[in-house]
Design a protein that fits this description.
The complex is a heterodimer of chains A (about 180) and B (about 600). By secondary structure, chain A is of the alpha/beta class. Chain A is about 35% helix and about 20% strand. Chain B contains 25 helices and 17 strands. Classes of the chains: A alpha/beta (about 180), B alpha/beta (about 600).
Chain lengths: ~180, ~600
């Protein structure tokens, strides 16, 4: 029987959650024994090659392409997991939700004290995805099956969650892995 | 800072002996004088009452009828309760907006008139109703609304808007109100002629313990809705250690759709005050407080005169009716527009001059209530029943009602029925009988117990109104076959979101999430799983909230979900791709498209 496949993506995130996944250290070898990685920045596969058992979502949706990728994940994955606070609540990028989009762009690309932009207008190449009016957490765009909180979630939490899921076992995380104070 | 303000605030504070527990009276007096409590006034009050400014500010900001910003000389408050809305309050509101040239929440540029909405003002049987300062105008139409504005512009005197007095004591010179009692059915207990002094005399002939035993024998249970045995409450308070004890009468009738206490206070204030006095005698208190909701302020001069008469007659004051050592008096504490203050511990907070935050229980008020002294808090109707028990004797009281619910119950009936008003019915009567009497037999749904109660349909019409079946504080809102049940539930949720005190998260956030999800369903964007979500979250809010508000606020949704499930099911459909129907990419990128001057490749695919 073919190994189940895992896909991962970082939307409006900082890749910190992916770093945390790499922090499972040598256990990544064990993981590679039981799963294949499909679309993911870890193996640089750009498009889905088939149906996946699990999709890990880092980051929320800040622009239209994030939405497209997330919907693509939903179509291809049996189980979708929001990993980390940006996917779950929008996180740091969502701080712009209090500010109108026009003002955000103006400050980031024109008026900001460290900005060097002789053109004086925000970049507008047709290849740049259009921003959304605000940053949306993943579960407001597609249905999400599980949420793993943390900034980032500890490597052990990600490991335990994947092992439980792939073995069809209930996930029983020790308190130490889900407390953040 | 003006000298005049300093003097005025000082005078007001000194009139209340600079007692910080009388903060409610102080800030209300300042608010009355100036139309708002300015920042300077808050500093002065804090200084005079030897407290922190934040204490003053927290009170001013908490209550709807107090303001930290200037308002018009006349404030028009349109009741936006669900019953009022069904009777056309929205059209009336539109007329006010057009005639005044301002929106709700705004003041006319000349600083004369302010327009606001307010939750149920206790006039659902004569809706839509509007409160203009303290003057209540019932049965307002859009034409009348325009007339009111035109007239106010001429004389700015709300009292002159009263054209025709209501029935009974509403026409009393000290009331002078257009409100109607609408007493549709007088039972054999409460709405009977009163022999002033009889009940207190009979009580004083007994020992306090015997009085409590009489109330227990009559099996009197609280009429506010919870149905706690009154005699037991009194016994606990009597037994609690402490020299100073209090009787608090809960006249903060804020549950939407309830107005029977208003009628009792208008027509039978002596029976209410007698009940308070008897309670004082029974538990060993010398002080009683009536916490009167701000919306009933038009009754205060009349109620004060009744109290004064009772003092003259020896029914209040020192050595009452010659009984050596029994001293008791009653004062009226005005509320300032907060539903939560109907909850007994929030009511106590408010009486103490604080925000109307509920307190943790235990300790219960019977042990530690007002000013940390043992206190009894009883509903207006409960105290009327006490008086009647003493007048008749407990055995006769017991003859009314059903097995475990003795006596009669006043029902406030409003909505789609021919004769809305107050009905005194024996406990144990079926809902069907009540609906037939009020001319609402074709009702598709009835909300029993006000906003926090339950919505039932025809299959439940043979159930009994009593403490062990359909328990209610008295509100029955009748909804005809054409009404949209989801809209009604939504109106109740809007009310709770507004009235949550915000102290605990399950209530502050949970009610909001419930309302959002209900809106998703009403917009046709929901899935069957959303119904499970509502049920689960509703249970969580009920279980985890700190006081009665959050413990009951999910009821409109939970009971409509249970009794009218097909209405919900017709609005949901399974989404097959796993996308959220509420997320609209085209709408989310619209702003960016405008800024960038190009169209999204994804949104319009």
């Amino acid at each position: 029987m073919a190994k189940p496949k895992i896909a991962t993506t970082s939307l409006a995130g900082c890749f910190g959650c992916h770093m945390s996944l790499l922090d499972i250290d040598e256990r990544i070898l064990a993981l590679a024994e039981i799963v294949d990685f499909d679309k993911s920045p870890l193996d640089d596969i750009k498009t889905f090659t088939g149906r996946c058992a699990v999709g890990l979502i880092e980051g929320g949706c800040a622009h239209e392409e994030n939405v497209e990728v997330l919907r693509d994940f939903r179509k291809h994955c049996d189980v979708l997991i929001s990993v980390g606070d940006c996917a779950i609540s929008g996180g740091i990028p969502a701080m712009r939700n209090m500010v109108p989009l026009q003002e955000c762009l103006q400050e980031a690309y024109v008026d900001g004290p460290s900005v060097h932009n002789p053109a004086g207008v925000p970049p507008n190449d047709p290849d740049i995805p259009l921003m959304l009016d605000k940053v949306y957490p993943a579960h407001e765009v597609v249905k999400i099956d599980y949420h793993l909180p943390g900034c980032p979630p500890p490597a052990d939490m990600l490991w335990e969650a994947l092992v439980a899921l792939l073995n069809n076992k209930p996930l029983d995380l020790p308190y130490e892995l889900v407390k953040y104070d | 800072m003006s000298e005049a303000l300093v003097t005025a605030v000082k005078d007001i504070c000194q009139a209340h002996e600079c007692d910080r527990t009388r903060m409610m009276d102080v800030v209300q007096a300042v608010n009355d004088k100036y139309g708002y409590v300015s920042s300077e006034a808050m500093d002065l009050i804090a200084e005079q009452l030897s407290t922190h400014r934040v204490e003053v500010e927290s009170v001013v900001s908490f209550y709807a009828f107090l303001s930290s910003k200037p308002k018009g000389k006349v404030v028009i408050r349109l009741c936006n309760d669900v019953i009022d809305r069904l009777q056309g309050a929205d059209r009336v509101g539109q007329a006010f907006v057009e005639e005044l040239g301002i929106n709700f929440g705004e003041t006319t540029p000349d600083g004369q008139l302010t327009l606001e909405t307010t939750p149920c003002i206790g006039q659902s049987d004569q809706a839509p109703a509007v409160a203009i300062n303290d003057v209540i105008i019932p049965n307002v139409s859009s034409d009348k609304a325009r007339e009111i504005v035109r007239e106010l512009r001429q004389h700015m005197d709300p009292a002159r808007l009263v054209k025709q007095h209501g029935d009974g004591n509403n026409a009393h010179p000290l009331v002078g109100s257009m409100v109607h009692n609408n007493i549709r059915k007088r039972g054999d207990l409460l709405f009977t002629p009163i022999n002033r002094g009889e009940a207190v005399r009979k009580a004083l002939a007994m020992s306090p313990v015997e009085v409590i035993r009489a109330v227990k024998t009559a099996r009197l249970r609280g009429r506010g809705g919870a149905g706690f045995p009154a005699g037991m409450k009194w016994e606990f308070t009597r037994g609690a250690p402490g020299d100073r004890k209090f009787v608090l009468c809960n006249a903060d009738e804020g549950e939407p759709g309830t107005f029977k206490d208003r009628v009792l206070l208008t027509e039978l204030p002596d029976r209410v005050f007698a009940g308070i006095t008897i309670a004082g005698y029974a538990i060993g208190a010398e002080e009683g407080i009536v916490y009167l909701r701000s919306e009933y302020r038009y009754l205060i001069a009349f109620l004060e005169s009744v109290l004064e008469q009772r003092r003259k007659d020896g029914l209040l004051g020192r050595n009452i009716l010659g009984k050596e050592g029994f001293n008791f008096d009653i004062r009226i504490q005005m509320g300032a527009g907060a539903y939560i203050c109907g909850e007994e511990t929030a009511l106590i907070s408010s009486c103490e001059g604080l925000r109307g935050d509920p307190k943790n229980r235990p300790p219960f008020p019977a042990q530690k209530g007002y000013l940390d002294c043992p206190s009894v808090v009883n509903n207006v109707e409960t105290l009327c029943c006490v008086t009647k028990i003493l007048e008749l004797g407990p055995a006769s009281f017991n003859e009314f009602g059903s097995d475990r619910s003795s006596g009669t119950k006043l029902l406030s009936i409003s909505g789609d029925c021919k004769q809305p008003g107050v009905y005194e019915m024996p406990l144990g009567v079926t809902l069907r009988e009540v609906l037939e009497q009020c001319g609402g037999a074709d009702a598709a749904a009835v909300q029993v117990g006000g906003a926090s109660g339950q919505m039932v349909g025809p299959k439940d019409y043979d159930r009994k109104i009593c403490f062990d079946d359909l328990a209610t504080g008295g509100a029955l809102m009748v909804f005809g076959p054409d009404r949209n049940i989801l809209k009604v539930a939504h109106a109740f949720m809007e009310f709770f979101v507004e009235e949550s005190c915000g102290y605990c998260t399950p209530c502050r956030v949970g009610n909001r999430l419930l309302m959002d999800r209900l809106e998703k369903i009403m917009a046709g964007l929901a899935e069957p799983a959303d119904l499970d979500y509502l049920k689960e979250l509703g249970q969580t809010v009920k279980t985890c909230s700190r006081c009665g508000l959050g413990q009951t606020s999910p009821n409109p949704i939970l009971t409509t979900l249970e009794n009218f499930r097909p209405v919900y099911e017709a609005m949901v459909k399974e989404e097959t791709q796993g996308f959220q129907a509420t997320f609209d990419l085209a709408q989310a990128v619209a702003e960016a498209e405008k800024i960038a001057g190009r169209t999204s490749v994804h949104a319009h695919a």
